[in-house]
């Protein structure tokens, strides 16, 4: 029966029931005529399946509305989405009240399970009511027979139960209300709208794939081709798009499937010969809600990649111009790390001065530097990082300041801009600043003071606007005393300071980091099912570590545990984790070392003394510049003097 004429702009909904729920459908349907075309089918189970097949030859509906065992049967046997009529708390109470008007000998029979609230409701109000559940129509029939034999007179339940109760000479009460049917139709309309949006998205995606120069093939878990774009045919010389549904190994026998189908492991950038041509292949798993449903193969022609590589080489300094991380990406469960993040946020938003980040290796100094850049006004400009300990003095100089044509043997004909120029208006991150040779420290100091640089082999100055963020794990103040680090450069870099506590001093972060790093490592290896048991086994052991390598070491340990799981073919036990890590450096006693808090206090005191000297001993002016009270300034200097006397 058609309640509303078909309209291409409205979803088509079939409301299906062979019981008294049909009458409720007929009552509610006219209210929704402007939102959906609703047709009511008064059939059940196999008869309904046959009717659906017959009608689908003309036009398949968007969503089916049904209830109870009948709805479950339809969901299992048709590909059309099914929106269920659900029973609410008000429905239950209204049906029970109606049943008690006929008799006190009441039973309620629900499909599959009894809502816990129903049992609580019956207990709370001392209702002498039998409560049952059924799975199939045959179960329902036996249940009604048993209730009739037990003397029950009124049965509340879905349409099937109400009809069977009437057939058995009992009184059947339908549990569904008008409001519950309205809610089911609303759900159906929303499902139809979501399907329409998904279809539109797929059409757009197909259009994108069609115009890609790279070849793209998607297969299901059986290895059958489910999608391909025209570029695949051009790259392989085969008619792949005409072979949908066929096994990939038969259509493209030269294409190696790799481990993406067997282990769900991604493989990027492998090179193989196909049809006499070199092709670069990316293999990635196709996932749906975390479950692998197939794989995607992307084929890149070698000539296109060679041209791309040539362009990348011509723009080598662009390789690190983007800061990927934000301060919100930093794991900070501990109060100490939350304070560090808050401090970085203030420095980013309210100052453009140089920042010195002090912390042990592996604590995430560059991650903080990137987050600081992304929180600052310079976030739309380059972020460029360089490790000052990874280059020789000559090479580091040319990297930082660039060079002119002919500056040295092997120099480019057009010269090359340095990192200061490339980072203009952005942030230059100088990692391991303590490793910079003394001669270069002088050039760096001049660049910071004058805000201009001179390329190697040139006499012309180039103005630059760069914020400097430096990082070190060394005690720069001790290096100043030893004469291996310039004091004036130290104070130029140490305007704002961030001290990152080691992982062993913030145990709250160990578990949070492990819950992030270990699942990520297991996921990369296709061991998602091992995440829960491995976390249960590893977390107590990981919390015992000294973590001299800090977060980097914890990440490395996560990778080793993952490889051990692959080797054993199962998750490790806690005993195995402890045995595996027993000899790891993280569990050895760390030698006595100067704490970061002591380093920070010493550096703050030295900075205070320097400012006091600049103010000719005027404590009030020095305190104003430092942004502290005169009492705090006096206390810092006195504490530093006491530490120096104690150390001899």
UniProtKB/TrEMBL annotation:
Residues 330-563 form the Sigma-54 factor interaction domain. The keyword Transcription regulation applies. Keywords: ATP-binding, Nucleotide-binding, Transcription, Transcription regulation. It comes from the Bacteria. Residues 201-257 form the PAS domain. GO terms for molecular function: ATP binding; phosphorelay response regulator activity; sequence-specific DNA binding. InterPro entries: AAA+_ATPase, AAA_lid_NorR, Homeodomain-like_sf, HTH_Fis, P-loop_NTPase, PAS, PAS-like_dom_sf, PAS_fold. GO terms for biological process: propionate catabolic process, 2-methylcitrate cycle; regulation of DNA-templated transcription. The keyword Transcription regulation applies. NCBIfam families: propionate_PrpR, sensory_box. PANTHER family: PROPIONATE CATABOLISM OPERON REGULATORY PROTEIN, TRANSCRIPTIONAL REGULATORY PROTEIN. This is Propionate catabolism operon transcriptional regulator.
